[in-house]
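Lecture notes, unit on binding sites. The following record was shown on slide 14. It pairs a sequence with flavin-adenine dinucleotide.
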Amino acid sequence: MDLIDQLREIVGERVSAAPSVRYCYSTDASQVKGMPDYVVRPMSTEEVSKVVTLASSLGVPVTARGAGTGLAGGAVPLRGGIVLDMSGMNRILEMDLANLQVIVEPGVVQAKLNDGLKPHGFFFPPDPGSSNICTIGGLIANNGSGMRCVKYGTTRNYVLDLEVVCASGRVIRTGSRMLKSAAGYDLTRLMIGSEGTLGIITKAGLRVVPLPKARRLVMASFEDAETAGMAVAKTFSSGIVPSACEILDRTTIQVLKLCDPNLVLPEGDVILFEVDGTEGSTAELAQKIAEVCSPFAAEIVMAGGEKEMEEIWEARRLVGAAISRLDPTKSRIYVGEDVGVPIKKIPALIREIGEISEKFDLPAMKYGHIGDGNLHVALFIDVMEKDEWTRLAAAADAIHRAAIRLGGTVSSEHGIGAARAEYMKTQWGEGTLSVMRAIKQALDPKGILNPGKLGLDESPSSGGR
Ligand SMILES: Cc1cc2nc3c(=O)[nH]c(=O)nc-3n(C[C@H](O)[C@H](O)[C@H](O)COP(=O)(O)OP(=O)(O)OC[C@H]3O[C@@H](n4cnc5c(N)ncnc54)[C@H](O)[C@@H]3O)c2cc1C
């Protein structure tokens, strides 16, 4: 029997080999491309397990996909085979708030989970810019995060338990409803950030936390981005932990004002500090931040009420895509976009990015989660100009290498996938990478789960960029 007929026996009509359908699954939000042979939309753990068991028996690659918002080609099937579209498994199964947790299927969209939690006074803190689209499964597989992780931590800090379909098709659980456990290897953490290379997540138990009662936003503007970086380092060394700490460089501010001239934002390179807690504690923290930043800042503005704050955060979420407002003939390409360095090294990273931008004659907008050392660099080019692509690749490479040299990482939250696989050896060294390869070999001896990712293959593919 053909593979498609065997898949049909498992999932009925929720399988397709039509070129038009396969094409839709051949990329994500990155530049990486790879065509699947089959697209399967499972609706239960049992279906996932049967599909993986079948694929394992035939040595066919299986790549899990959430919403396809990944920026590193993680969900792109580099070696063909089956794409498992997990977005149909999208139920919030249980709100166990007495145990401070929820049980969800992997296809639940991040914002939908928080919409469900809000009336109960709780939230799930990791909040990526893509929160209205990306799935919990994708967030766990990439260890995604966002603006609040400076205070609340990344997805890793909120996963208590996973149900996982292993490469053999066997279903295991990696945790329990316990908020803590000291029983053996931490397989939950091993799965987090594994980008679908060690197992397919079919259920997750997530820790949630009470919504803060109050929040405030302090906006400080600076003469240059380097000084802004110094003010952030000073804020942290003064013992202040904001609930968000974002940099919007002067180009980003310009873009935001082009999008919405009514936005209340200072000029220059700006840091947004949000603090949360009670009315009293937020007032005190906001005042302290203003005091610490004032020797560095050109201007410090306290945002007005909740509505004004929300408008500013919404604009911040959209800024990555809005850059073409500066020049409609150019498009933003997501490469070299997710570097991170220890907080103290931020001014040095900002300086180096400025030099790289000049050297390759490419404007670079800088924004992002500076509070945890994560800078998003937006390079934009005229996609019809071959030379601009060449300079773009060279600039992205230089940005990645600068981050590693400064003791940082080529990806703080978007993941490695195929787009950054070539840097794994430089960032980690052969010793650490060989341990990662041994884990992959032990859990997926036939190498069917998302092959070609994370630099785990001896000769990693760059994914047909
Ligand atoms: C405009 C924009 C803004 C963004 N902002 C942020 C941000 O602020 N912070 C951030 O962290 N990211 C951000 N991202 C990147 C992206 O949204 C995240 O990486 C997100 O976690 C991907 O989720 P997804 O559901 O789209 O996963 P996909 O892209 O579909 O997949 C991502 C990875 O997860 C694996 N995977 C998916 N589901 C499963 C599963 N059930 N089991 C095992 N593996 C699975 C895939 O194989 C792949 O390796 C942004 C992206 C865009 C386009």
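Take-home: DSSP finds 14 helices and 19 strands in the chain.
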